[in-house]
Amino acid sequence: MNLMSPGLDVLRASYRNEKQQPELLKTGEIYRLNFDHMLTSNLFRAGHRIRIQISGAFFPHFSRNLQSGESEVTSSRMCPAHIRIYHEPDHPSHIDLPVIPIPR
Prior knowledge:
Elements lengths: L86 E2 L2 E2 L12
C-alpha cells in the first residue's frame, strides 16, 4: 500500500472569502468553494489512484472545527457537520485534472 499525499488544499468554508472574521454558512444555501492552491504537478504512473477526501474537520493537522460557529479557542460546544456535494446541471461539482504528456 502506497500512502502518498502530494499536497493538502484545506479551506474552512466560513473563511471562503479570505476575510478576517468568519462568514458562517446558512442551512439550505449552496456555496461555491474553490481549491486553487494545490501543487503544480505530480506524476501518476499506471496503477496509481487518486483519492479526494472531503470532511468537516482535519484535526489535529489543522485547528479543530466544532461546526458551531463559535471560537475553537474558547468554546467546547460541538455540532455535527452535514456536507452535501451537488452534481446537477445548476450546480455541477467537478474536479479538473489537467494532463501533461511526458516527453519521450
